[in-house]
Structures
1.
Amino acid sequence: MIRPRNEHTLAGVCEVRGRGYWSGREVRVRFCPAAAGSGIRFVRADLPDRPSCLAISCNVTPGSLRTNLRDGDASFEMIEHVMAALYGLEVDNCVVEIDAEEIPGMDGSAKDYVHALQSVGMVVQAAARKRYLINRNFRVGDEHSWIEAMPVCDGHPVYEYWLDYGDHSPIRPQSYSGSLSAHSFARELAPARTFVTAEQVDRLRREGVGTHVGPRDLLVFDDSGLVDNRLRYDNECARHKALDLIGDLALTGFDLVGHFVSNRGGHRLNAELATQLAEVAQVNGWLSVTPDGSEPSVVECMRAIDTRQDVSKMPWGRVA
């Protein structure tokens, strides 16, 4: 059984530079230490007054092929790989400064983010890390595409992905299943890259999106297979989908202990499950949040969803 742990933040500041997949802009991301209990907060360093957004599921906005966040004037695109890297390495409190709207895609994986975070190390903080132990089954989706969260006997979180796009897809059916730890995440999942079909690339370019991105920037599959690249794992596509699942479920704002199985799921279903788990944790009293007065809590945001309130107008203060 995994022992409860205290929260972690970074021991120093690190940064990553790259281009946004969608915008093509050069972007700098700085990871900075943050106070215990503050969570992951994205900051727009390029805008007046540096607007920010807490990385929790109630701030997710719809996006195609990626996860986006918005809170007022602060909007961020394609945050899932950064969230996966932070969650996978157990960095609980961090300020993520970005000088554009879109997080850089790098090589389509979380590898560069993991290397940057590992380069500065972590410090243990006084606050206990909040955890939610899955004690019954949860399911979102339909018979074609679904995600299920189930209890685990040994207390070690397991993430599993089943990928099958049918007989006509150039991407063959494959799966991944593994127990999550900081070591296993860095070794087994962080290097797994984003993938698309050549048909998707052509469609995006006709729309004027991602015109600078080629087969060396991510995995592209045509009818003959992988284009001008080599796989890092035989099941790299399924591993990357598991990485996305971890990054999106990190938006609950607390550790999850359970067995998570996704069958052809994507960002929309990931966000739906994250919201459901956060709501259930709040209702059952298994999540205790006491923010320092400068940030809205997970509980406040979930109540805002339940009552259809504007999250930006929620009161700021302590919640027992």
2.
Amino acid sequence: MARRDAAPVCVERTVDDRIVLAVLAAGTFLAPLDSSIVNIALPAIAADFGARIAAVGWVATAYVLTTASLVLAMGRLADIWGLRRVYVAGFLVFGTGSLCSAVAPGLGLLIAARVLQASGAAAMFAAGPALVTKTFPPQRRGWALGWISLAVSAGLTAGPALGGVLVGTFGWKAVFVINIPLSAIMAYAASRLLPEDCPEAEPFDVLGAVLAAATLTAALLALSEVDRSGLLSAGVLGASLVAVVAGVSFVRVERRSPHPMLDLRLFGERRFSAGVVAAVLSYASLFAVTFTMPFYLLRARGIDARLAGLVLTATPLSMALFSPIAGRLSDRYGSRWLATFGLAWLSLALAAMTLLQPGTPLGFVAAGLFCVGTGLSIFQAPNTAAILRAVPRGRAGVGSALVGQARNLGMALGIGITAAVVAAGLGGSDLMALARPLTPAEADLFVSAMRPALFVGAALAMAGAAASWSRGRDAVHYEPVDAGAPPRVDSSAG
């Protein structure tokens, strides 16, 4: 007779991996889409609530800060509670936050609703790639992550164009209303179609989660304030001090914890740490283009929003073509060469875009953006596969969260650096705040200020290529059962 206190047997349900990929790709598209779609609605929100644009900016900033501060905690929670449960819960919270945002009667409640919405997005970011790792065998994992990389980048890039159509046709509330039915559909589909998983029975490191959130929030606040207040302003220095103190405390707590939220031994593995650093630098370099191109097209060139959106689709189009191919190639040949070549190509594309003039043919602009997307797509899936390959099975959620965290930090770093470089080039001129097309003299001034930012982006991409190359061969193996064991390196690795 079986004992009454015997542990229940966890049986993982097998599901068609093509269905899983479709659900995960659709869900992965939604969260980054919302992080970029709202920016286009900020002027309309400011006009509706009679608020200053600096205050309305917190509608976007609160979302980014909350996502970045919670994604690691959500990843660890997914390891403990279950990947599918956290993923489904993420959609439900995201949809609830979208509903609250759409009906918010004032700016303060709208910002609070965005915090709720971002909490759900953090759960989706954390669990999505980990579910790919759990569902797909190693020989198909890169291909699947290629589609996930495509979904993330497409969401980030498509946001401004789609937001312009929604705001222009239905008003700013439409950018939130559209999420409500989509979230409900995705939550139902994920709960029915994604596979069961057997989470680890470990306690959640609450103190580690709080310190991690404090560190990341303070660091991102410091980066966001650099271009507004200057590098040595009181706000930047204060936020930096909080980030350092909280970060040091986090490291000390995690080293002593028997069940840490983030196993710091992971960063001792070169292939893991090099992949994370390369991911941060790749997104930082990408946002040199993402930050400057809309203003270049809409203000310096004076073209309408629809045509600008069409030009900007060159980046997601190239990613649609090359991300799955790059993922498939990484399954066969490894990640080192592909990821390094992708960032080197991205660096060359950014350097070429410094040749832009106010009168450059739009075909050349689109070709440059296409090359930017090509380099990023060749890098992303192989690099993500390498990072997740270097994570023990019981830490898949944390590994997946770190991929999302690298994206958040890279975006914040890229925006902060690009904004600071462009502002320095403008010499105190407030051209970025103008809502009208620029005069020829103003357009020349902006383009001359944009070039150094693109050069910096090219340098960041090349630094990422160097970090990617430093990872060595893809020959790391982990014991699949003991999630707390340190990595075991194949002695044949070069």
3.
Amino acid sequence: MIRVVVGGTFEYLHRGHRELLKKAFDTGDYVFIGITSDEFKDKCRIRFEERKRRVESFVKKFEKEYKIEKIEDRYGPTLDEDFDIIVVSKETRKTAEEINELRRKRGLRPINIVEIPLIFAEDLMPISSRRIRDGEIDEEGRRLKPLIVNVGSENPSKIRAVEKVFSQIFKFNIIVKGVKVDPQVPPQPLEEETIKGAINRAKKALGNGDYGVGIEAGLFWNEEVKEYFDKAFCAIVDEYGHITYGYSGGFVYPPQVIEMVKKGMEVGEAIEILSEIKDIKKKMGAIGFLSKGLIERADFNAQAVLMAMIPRISPDLYF
């Protein structure tokens, strides 16, 4: 008989909890389910008996032997009893590793750890009881509140880029706001400074939002062709602190622009002189002027934003 142990608060029997329990029953012949007491988890809004009832109602359908007990700490009976497998989520894996370390010290064999993938809500962040309790999502992961996306810039083209990409991905209410921040990089960033600037913008913009987005354009040297390429780099951080990254395509500036930049001028200033268009970087941008309107700066920045969202669009392959 394969004995499996699984534990948690199970405050809301959300989709992540159901996957955790399903994995436990798929893996073993007998499942011990530990549910934290009301005293141990004092932030829990639902009393133990109700949580137990919900869990029991769900697991009965598996038609396997199980036991549900109240536990008063993170370890439950795992430090004394023998189990073959412990089923955990990414967030609780550390506790399982602690259990095995304590078991080794007691001369007991370790329990095999089986980790289920993260289960994501429709806003592409993990489902959790805390988020359900705060009214962000429901138990199925559907978004209940508007998604707040803070962009680390007041530049209209960057804000439009984020609005464009996020509205393509999410089909619920989104609020995109520009936030003035200091990226802590030179006005004309080069190479790694561009990446650093985007990350700083994203982190500083996040605040109480769901996502913070940083976009920084800079020059990247290509040794093979001996040219500087202008690329937009995007960093996106969520409320969990996860960061994803993406580049736009790259293009080469006219030689006179590069010469002006080497003398200490920003690309935007150089293009403004060349184009005779005031505040061009807040309008079509250099890419709009040089491409004769075939691509504007907002679309150029949107490339980087979309690339940075790819790991979030396919989270099962990245997280």
4.
Amino acid sequence: MNKFNKFIEEKLLPVASKLGANKPLISIRDGITLAMPLIIIGSLFLIINSFPITAWTAWLTKTGISEILTKGTNGSFGIMGLVASFGIANSLAKQHGVDGASAGVISLASFVIITPNIFTADKSPIEGMPITYMGSRGLFIAIILGIISAEIFQWFIKHNIQIRLPETVPPAVSKSFSALIPGATIITLWLLVYAIATYSGLGNLHDLLLKILGKPLGILGDTLGGTLIVIFLNSAFWFIGIHGGNVVNSILNPIWLMNTDENRIVFQADSTAKLPHIVTQPFMDNFVWMGGGGATLGLVIVIALIATRKKASKITKTLAPLTLTPGIFNINEPTMFGLPIVLNISLLIPFILVPMINAVVTYSAMAIGIVHMTVGISIPWTMPPILSGFLATGGHISGSIIQMICILLDVAVYYPFFRIVEKQNQIEENI
């Protein structure tokens, strides 16, 4: 045990800490998180517009309200790429200690420049952009463009290549002038990139990046085997005290969100059509990681059950209410660091195995058609299971049923391992 802990502390922990503090990864996480409120709001419109009651949907269509709700979904859920381009540059610039807002605005303008215009039949541009590229299909461009733009911006500012005004000038005005030289350089750069891509035959950079990056990342983010690898890495990082979601999920979130949005588009067009993706953001959040990283809802239920026994340890009786209530809402930091799970060898196997079981069971059930796939509705990650499964599948009870089955399996797997922890607690209390 001591050798294992020493190996983790000396070899794995430094590497994991560097990954967890990686500025580009943090900026990707922050940028996509900035768009999450819009994604959830758009999902609410989608739920109202597609609630599985024929009379309701027919009335919405007849009155024209359905078209308005669709506009609300497209105008919120459908601009996540545009928002992420601002958020990623803003976050990365702030991490470098320079003006994040200016970097974000420049990145957003660059995103608009790199995105092709809509053309009429006679090839004259009209005022507008395809909403397709403003949404999930624009995430790869948003990530790369946001990171590069922020790095260039901070280099100019830190090398004092900027217009400096007297200190008597209001800060807001001073910052806007400071951004002129780096902003002009960055926007010109992306304008040249757009021109080269357009006139060299490379075409649309959004689609080009999707082909280059989408296929290899899709192996991890859109297949069962890749999903199991991601789950393993997520749990492994959490086990050594590094937020697994911040490291692993930051890389895969764009794929999961694109899959979510593609399901939404198909479902909006025809609620009876076969959906293209099983692995989506709601699939991971609401079916795999129930209770948080390691799917610890099953564990906190076990703790609560054992705490009801008269001979239960004082530690377990104290932990039960502190872990169960937040665990129901998928908040598991009290469990991670209070039990703890971090660096607790006794719980390592179930912590890795349980979310894998959830993924295999749910994926298989959706693949053979006994459970409805997620319809593109993004559920807040704090939504309790059973209810989240119903909503994520567009109002299908099968989503709730598969969650209940997985929770029972999770409890069964966690139980014998926590019994070992409980015996250790009792021994310590009797010494």
